[in-house]
């Protein structure tokens, strides 16, 4: 009888451990990452999943030009500010937003959307964004990166934030 209890316990432990491991986001191919910093008095935090290049052509291929993109992998990228800020000269109230982008060959759009917590893409493959909940859209210019960035990375600087991936950098000014 003791062997049955021990076997049942071990089986239960195995099932629970497997379940916990599946919820460990750090083991994903595109692990979670956070960029945080100050722009003036505002604290800016960007939570995203960081895919790798893995020898693929990113811009205009894996991430198509002129289509809405979740600005990361897995769940929609989250942009949070604790103060009202000006993004590329336009007002963005303090709060938490899903950040989407429309990459272009030289010009990009970043979209701040009030819906958060959703998976980044729908089953159809398109970005999981409700345009009716867009709060702000800004246009910015991309430029070649000084280094190859194997993983998607955001950086918050004193002047705003930048997306860096593959051989591209996309800075966004914040005041």
Provide keyphrases for this structure.
globular; mainly beta; Asparagine synthetase B; signal; 175 residues; two-stranded antiparallel sheet
Walk me through the structure.
The chain has 175 residues and is mainly beta. It has one domain (30-173). Helix content is 12%, strand content 45%. It has 1 helix and 10 strands, in the order αββββββββββ. It has one helix at residues 2-22; strands at residues 32-39, 42-49, 77-81, 85-87, 90-92, 95-102, 107-113, 134-141, 143-157, 160-173. The strands form 3 sheets. A 6-stranded antiparallel β-sheet has the order 1-2-3-6-7-8, with no helix packed on it. Strands 4-5 form a two-stranded antiparallel ribbon. The chain has a two-stranded antiparallel ribbon with strand order 9-10. Strand 9 (143-157) and strand 10 (160-173) form a beta hairpin.
Low-confidence stretches: 17-21
Terminal CA distance: 70 Å
Strand content: over 45%
Largest sheet: 6 strands, antiparallel
Strand order of the largest sheet: 1-2-3-6-7-8
Order of helices and strands: HEEEEEEEEEE
Anisotropy-based shape: globular
If you average the pLDDT, what whole number results? 88
Q: Treating each run of at least 4 consecutive H or I residues as one helix, how many helices?
A: 1
DSSP E strands, number: 10
Radius of gyration (CA) equals 19 Å
- Total count of domains: 1
Q: State the share of residues found in helices, binned by percent.
A: 10-25%
Tell me the structural class. Answer: mainly beta
